[in-house]
Amino acid sequence: MTAPTPAFASGTILGYPRIGRRRELKRAVEAHWAGALDEAALEQTAAQLRRATRDRLATRGLGRGDSSIPEAFSYYDQVLDAALTVGALPERFAHLREPDGAIGLRALFAAARGEGAHAPLEMTKWFDTNYHYLVPEIGPETTFSLASDRFARQVAEAVADGVTVRPVVVGPVTLLALAKATDAAPDGFDPLSRLDDVVAVYARLLSSLRAAGAEWVQLDEPALVSESLPAAPAALADAAERAYATLTAGEDRPAILVAAGYGPLSAAAWETLSRSDVEGIAIDLHRGGTPDAHAGLADKVLVAGVVDGRNVWRGDLRGAWERLDAARALGAAHVAAGTSTSLQHVPHDVDDEPDLDPRLRSWLAFADQKVDQVVTLARGLRSGAAAIAAALDAASEALDDRRRAPGVADPAVRARTAALSTADAVRGDDAERAAAQDAALELPALPTTTIGSFPQTGEIRRARAAHVRGEIDTAAYEGFLRDEIRRVIALQEELGLDVLVHGEPERNDMVQYFAEHLDGFAVTRNGWVQSYGSRATRPSILWGDVSRPAPITVDWATFAQSLTPRPVKGMLTGPVTILAWSFVRDDQPLSATADQVALALRDEIADLEAAGIGIIQVDEPALRELLPLAVADQAAYLEWSVTSFRLATAGAAPRTQIHTHLCYSEFDVVIDAIAGLDADVTSIEAARSRGSVITDIAESGFAHGVGPGVYDIHSPRVPSVGEITALLERAARELPLRQIWVNPDCGLKTRGYDETVASLRNMVDAAGSVRASVSVPV
Length: 778
Hints:
The chain is of the alpha/beta class. It is built from 26 helices and 21 strands.
């Protein structure tokens, strides 16, 4: 560097929610997609949101002039941003580059959502979170260049407002470790082999950020904490050594903070970063223990991630202070309090939740309250523990109050889980079940169905909102919902689907709906968290022991079944997904909470069966996402997660066909667990990966029914009959026909009806074509 390393604050966060407190970015982006907002107006809205975030963080105590405010904005996804910044735009979208080769918003949105016949990038989960990132496509033919100045423009924007920000960019090692090879790449090609070429572009990016006014840059490298990526931890540490040797040698660059959240750094990565010439390292001390001291820290900033960036509990602030104090003993030149990860995983502000019980609210910390915790700990670093004693005591008192509160421990629930035995999670013989289901259901080969939800139209949302506001009474609202179910059933019959769904118009969200009907949960009004792109969810808060006071879905399922002679699936959300997509209590093992949820679902399944529902789908789209990043922890997780699903479903009779659905699952990683679920039919996302999962299924010997998703519902594209036929023909070549089901990748809630009807019609036509061209194996 050409100047001494700039000073660093005593406290910072690694990122902040970027969708807006009232989802302003979502609305603006979707208006732009609909043609109602031009690019200039979209950019103006985004700039206003960034400015509001900077002002709010400064108001809450993060400094305006010391790089403690991160600039982590994205229109869609941070991995996509990094990939396009270095020019990694798939060739099928090359025509969308600007005349000078730059990559603008149209190309960005096309890569994310698809355009015409061009499929979008594959989407999968960001480590073990419920956030989805877009998978870069990189091959030996990929040409890298600095193709976007967006990061630099955002720094300059902040500087013009008198704020020194720290731009946040996915680091080069993580970018390549998360990438997949292009279709043109030879077998065995590893995107990480392009590291030197990518790092050369990152060096140019750093220079542009410095020229724009950045004193520090944050390069996020969570790949260095994971043991579940194709590259081994030692190989990733070696890649980091090469990358940061080059980047730190550059002149006229910002100081570099390498941030590695979501777990403890591997020993090799900690060693590598400690002895490198980067100016700062941010580590997760909430999930990981304090690492060993290292002499290389003597000239570095250490951001100690002691405040949990991923859950909403106020937590043990005194314990965080103790971890922070231990970090000070590692010998770093400067220690700052920080969050363990970006705060993009939590809602904005507890004070936006007037409907929550005040006692529960006192136990919580959303993004703004976590900023306050960081600022408090930073004050302790500057002024000593006595200066923050009152804040530490208040947090401890809230923690004690939470332990004592009614409902946190329910004796009846605990007695029921204590009485469980191994037999309660065993369903019975596969062959007996298959014969009973064949006789009961009489389905054709390649049965067609959907995953559950149909489009949640504006009319549905308006009716729900009117009911919540008391503008229409319950009888009128339920009448509206029944009319919607009649329409959806009739549509599916007209399309020719074999197994129908009621469309779920009564459900605001596949987890929140159950949370509203189970004891032990609370729901929020404004607790939005980004899931992917413009999609946001409101995770429920699981604060106490869980039980089911009354049936939840039975009336809707039986009404739908009364409208048609074809089977209608009962639709439930599985115990692991309810946990994964909620903010779950942290005062007992996840396995204990999962068993409580499973027993509530077991009761619901019994009531559905008694009402005559012959197919029941228990969705577990989040099974893969909770898989621990540390290999040593994975077996225990898979054991309890599989057991909880079986506990929910094992009471079903042999003639009842149990389905499940999984999202974004690298099937080969959890194949044994998926087989262990013992579901009669498993649907799994496959379209964005072009059906590559089918080979994994075939090679595994998976014996149950399986529905590899034949089209991607996260894109507005309507797949052609030929496209779906090709995927089904691949499945028919590799799997026994009796195993194959035909379905979309996921639920249709976020889609519009025009594209949904066209896509489903093509799906049914493709299934009929393949059904007619092949015979059922004996």
